[in-house]
Amino acid sequence: MPRERLSVVVTRRLPEVVETRLSELFNVRLRDDDTPMSRDELAAALREADVLVPTLNDRIDAGLLAQAGERLRLIANYGAGVDHIDVATARQRGILVSNTPGVLTDDTADMTMALILAVTRRIPEGLAVMQKNEWTGWAPTALLGGRVGGRRLGILGMGRIGQAVARRASAFGMQIHYHNRRRLRPEVEDALEATWWDSLDQMIARMDVISVNCPSTPSTFHLMNARRLKLMKPSGVIVNTSRGEVIDENALTRMIRAGEIAGAGLDVYEHGTQVNPRLRELPNVVLLPHMGSATLEGRIEMGEKVIINIKTFADGHRPPDQVVP
Ligand code: DGY
């Protein structure tokens, strides 16, 4: 089918330049309000599209895929994580899935560093003092945080983003450690000056800061469960810019409240927008609304990747970022 007749349904508002480019190239239906589609709307979109462009807000499970139309051939996800899509079922039904890896690596790694610094240097507490107009001047003991330089950082998941975090943290003088299913090649490990831990438990027990950078899969669900969180040093801090499901949020909340963990910086949550209310009350917890990749540049590049994936598919080839279950 000629590209311009390909019916592409986009489930969420995208940056204007991306929407314009999509409209120039394909027969696109854009979303005009900035809310996620309901399940019924999503089912209708799956019935009418040749290509669906969803975001992480759209849960595309086996039940929904069963309602997809015969014509649906590609789900070109606007985002890197595909834990919201049942990729295996899509494949069984002959539907390809692609994503947008690489272009949000640096932005997410920057945000990881921002969270590490915000928690260890107590930035939100300082901000609150200024916003409440409570500052009475410099004081030798006011708002003392911890120095990041020299601290041991344990990166959980050493893919693209984990490695980008390692490079940044290293520049801040942190010592880099990591746990990953597969050990990095020696030359990559050397370049990052990173120490690999086969045992996640042993790594956790020795780190000052843990950074979660692994995807959400059945095997990473609650990887940081109550037992592992208990292994952390009481002075330890944990940050997560990956997916909330990797940490048992209730256990984390309990332990921070009990002073068993010193602090946390979270950009993602186990139950999406339903953030444990007790987390919000804690001064040593910094919460962000999933904005790790939120730069205009990054979001445009994500759109460019979506377009390349659709174009390549329309030209009869395998999308460059096809996700294999
Ligand atoms: C992704 O693309 O999966 C990111 O989480 C978006 O920030």
From TrEMBL:
PROSITE patterns: D_2_HYDROXYACID_DH_1 (PS00065), D_2_HYDROXYACID_DH_3 (PS00671). Signal peptide: none annotated. Keywords: Oxidoreductase. It comes from the Bacteria. Residues 8-323 form the D-isomer specific 2-hydroxyacid dehydrogenase catalytic domain. Residues 113-292 form the D-isomer specific 2-hydroxyacid dehydrogenase NAD-binding domain. CDD domains: GDH. Pfam families: 2-Hacid_dh, 2-Hacid_dh_C. Belongs to the D-isomer specific 2-hydroxyacid dehydrogenase family. This is D-glycerate dehydrogenase. It comes from Ruegeria alba.
